Amino acid sequence: MHIPSSFITFALACAVAFPAAAQDATAPADAPYTLEDYRRLALDSNKQLMISREKIRKAEYQKKEAFAAYLPSFDLNAGYVYNQRNISIFDKDQLLPTKSFDLKTQSYEFDLVKNPVTGEPIKGPDGSYIPSTVALIPKDAMTFDIHNVFFGAVTLTQPVYMGGKIVAMNAITRAAEQAARDLHIAEAENVIYAVDAAYWQVVSLSAKQALATSYVDLLQSLHDDVHAMLEQGVATRADALSVDVKLNAAQVDLTKVENGLVLSRMALAQVCGLPVDTPLSLADEGKDVPMPATVPASEYNMEEVFANRPDLRALGQGVEAARQQARVEMASMLPTVAIIGSYEVSNPNMYDGFKKRFKGAFSVGAMVSIPLWHWKGDYSKYKAAQADANIRRLELEDARSLVTLQVRQAAFKTTEAAKTYITAQSNLAKADENLRTANLAFREGVATSDNVMEAQTAWLKAHSEKIDAMIDVRLCDTYLSKVLGTLYQ
Description:
CATH class of the largest domain: Mainly Alpha
Largest sheet: 4 strands, antiparallel
CATH superfamily of the largest domain: Outer membrane efflux proteins (OEP)
Number of helices: 8
Low-confidence stretches: 1-27
Order of helices and strands: HHEEEEEEEEHHHHEEHH
CATH topology of the largest domain: Outer membrane efflux proteins (OEP)
Mean pLDDT: 88
Strand content: 5-15%
Distance between the termini: 62 Å
Helix content: 40-55%
Strand order of the largest sheet: 1-8-9-10
Shape: rod-shaped
C-alpha cells in the first residue's frame, strides 16, 4: 500500500532587523507581560526615539535663538596694544612768530625786525621776513607716549527692520520644532508596529509549537497502532514505513518551529531593549487571541487622516519652512535698519589733552544698509528657494495621494483578514470532525492508515491556517491604525 507524500510548512520569523536595543532596560518579571507592557518597554529604550527626543530639544533651543534676534544685543570688547614708537607731531622744535596790536591799523600785526633807518621790515636770506620775537614749541611737548595702549567698548545693537528675515527665521524654527515632534510620533508608531509584529510572531510560533507537538503525538499514536497491526499480520511493512517517514518529518518540523520560536523571542527582546537571552513570557501565549472589536469603515474622511498622520504633518511643516526660507532670501535684497550705541574708553585718552588714564564717552547712531547690485546673485537664491518650496509642496501632495491608497489597501486587507479568519474557523471545525471520523473508522477497520494520515494532515493545515488568520487579523488591525495615524495617541 502506497502512502502519498505531503508537506507541512510552518512560517518562521527569523533574522528580523530591529533597532539597536538598550541593554539596561528592566527585564520582564515572572508574570506574563501583555502587548502594552512590551510596547512600553520598547518606547522607553529605543535609541531612535532617544535621538528624536534630542532633536526636539535642539529645535526648541533653535527657536529660542531665533527669538533672541528681536532683542538688542550687548557686546563687550577690550584690548591692549604695544607700540614700538611714540607719536610726535613735529620733527623738531618749532619757532612761531608772534603778533602785537597796532593802534594805527587797529589790528594785530607780526612782530618783525625793522630797518632802524627806513623802518621797513627786513627779509632774511630765504626771502621771508624775520620775526623779532618768537614762541618756542619744543618737540618734546608734542610727543605722546603710546607704547602701552588700553581700550574697551560696550556696544548695543537693536535691529529695527531686517527685511522680514527675523520674522521668517522665527517661523522656520517653529516649523522645525513641530516637525521634530511629529517625526518623533512617527518613529514611535514604527517602534510600536515592530513590537506588535515581533510579539504576534512569538504568539504564532508558540501556538504552532503546541500544534506540532500535538501532531507528533497523533502520528506517534498511529505509529504504535500500525506497528501493533504489523505484528498481528493485518498491516504491511509499507504501511509501517509510511507512518515512520511521516513521523520523522513531523519531528523535524517540530524542531524547526522550536528553533524559530527561540529566534523570535530574541527578536522581541531586542526590539524591547532587553538582552536577547532574556526569558520572555507573553500573556497571549497558549490562548485564543480575542479579535479586535473595530470593523474597518467603508469610507474615511481623508482630511482627518491627513491631519492625524505625523509624517504628513512633518512634511507640511517642511513646506512652511521652505516658504519662509524664500522670505529669508528675499530679505537679503531689502534695506536693513539698526540702531547702534556704544560707550568707549581708552588709556591714554585724548578727551582733555593727552592723559595716561582711562576716560570714555557715549556714542549713538543708526545704520542703514541698502543692497544695490549683486549681479542677480541674491535674486537667483530667492528663486531657488521658491523652487524648493514648490518641490516640498508637490512632495506633500504626492504623499497624500499615496496615503489615500495606503488607507484603502489597509482597510481592504483588514476586512479580508477577518473573512479569512471566519473561514479558517469553519474549516477547523470540519477538520476536527473529519479526524474524529477517520480515527473511529480506522479503529473499526473500515479505514486505512492512509486515510487517517490524510485526515491528520488536513487537521494540521486547518489549525495552522487558523493561527495564521488570527495573527493576521491582529497585525492588519495594528497596521490600519498606523496608516490612519491613531496608533500612537
